[in-house]
Amino acid sequence: MLIITSAFCQDLSAQNYAASAQLGAENLKTSLQMTDSQTVAFKNASIHFYESLQAVKDSVTDVQIRKQRLAQVFASYDNQIKSILTATQYTQYLAVVQQLSQPPAGQRTGVQGRQGR
Q: Out of 15, 44, 63, 117, which residue is the most buried by the measure of CB atoms under 10 Å away?
């Protein structure tokens, strides 16, 4: 679960990792009322997450192994975020992630959006 979900499908440079992580942390700082130290820790965890995703993508070609490794990366990131945020902040974070993962109202998704063409 992440704030910047579109990053999963893209190759990001190290510079973009840091920029994306900083943007995500700053956006959440206000809504979750994070402290400065929490914001820095969140940014660092996000950079590590992006680097780990890219490493799996670059090094693992077997689909099943890739799925397993990605699941491990996501679980590790989730545990890091849980350790950074308070229980209340983490609940709010999950709500934000859920909201951002929903398509905009009225937007068609997947094959259903192409039927009838």
A: 44
